Amino acid sequence: MLKREIRALYPKLRTELPQDILREKSLDISNQLLKLQVWDAEYFHIFLPISEKKEVDTSYIIPVLQGRDKHVIIPKVTRDGELSHFLLSDNTRLVKNKWNIPEPENGIQISETQIDVVFLPMLAFDREGYRVGYGKGFYDRFLEKCREDVIKIGLSFFGPVDRISDREMHDIPMDFCLTPDEIYSFSNSSR
């Protein structure tokens, strides 16, 4: 399946999901996380969902991480189209950017090399662990700056497509993808 086909189809599939089903599926995805062996990690980077695009609601995952005394890191898009990363605290004030992404207004900045686990937003993924986002490349550029051993976990309401046929050299595969019904583990994972 081509990226442009995925970008046309999957937003429509999401819009067809009623809010109560979105909440239920998001909670199921957060429960899948409990089954992964990632709890030795300290720094967890998580996206905050664009509610208008019916993304996976990560507000169910954040308390799980905080309850285990993990450092929760959230992104902010910079003027030059890169991501900067901030520690989420009780004092963090969130504002929506031009894409309706909630972002920290300020806070303690964290280096990419400190991050142990990254949760990845997506529209869809394939059986080899490659994902399709909205096409801005924020996460591909961010992952290039992370340590080689960073654990990459996708979050998706839907199971995989067979193959994304127009992958590019800069596309980075995930280690895992959590869906409401299954945990997908990819061969590039040593965990």
UniProtKB/TrEMBL annotation:
Enzyme Commission designation: 6.3.3.2
Residues given in the record as substrate binding sites: I50, E55
Record's catalysed reaction(s): (6S)-5-formyl-5,6,7,8-tetrahydrofolate + ATP = (6R)-5,10-methenyltetrahydrofolate + ADP + phosphate
Alphabetically ordered keywords of this record: ATP-binding, Ligase, Magnesium, Metal-binding, Nucleotide-binding
MF-aspect GO terms: 5-formyltetrahydrofolate cyclo-ligase activity; ATP binding; metal ion binding
Binding residues annotated for ATP, in chain numbering: K3, R4, E5, I6, R7, R131, V132, G133, Y134, G135, K136, G137, F138, Y139
Cofactor dependency: Mg(2+)
GO BP: folic acid-containing compound biosynthetic process; tetrahydrofolate interconversion
Pfam families: 5-FTHF_cyc-lig
Similarity annotation: Belongs to the 5-formyltetrahydrofolate cyclo-ligase family.
Protein name (Swiss-Prot/TrEMBL): 5-formyltetrahydrofolate cyclo-ligase
Organism in which the protein naturally occurs: Lentiprolixibacter aurantiacus
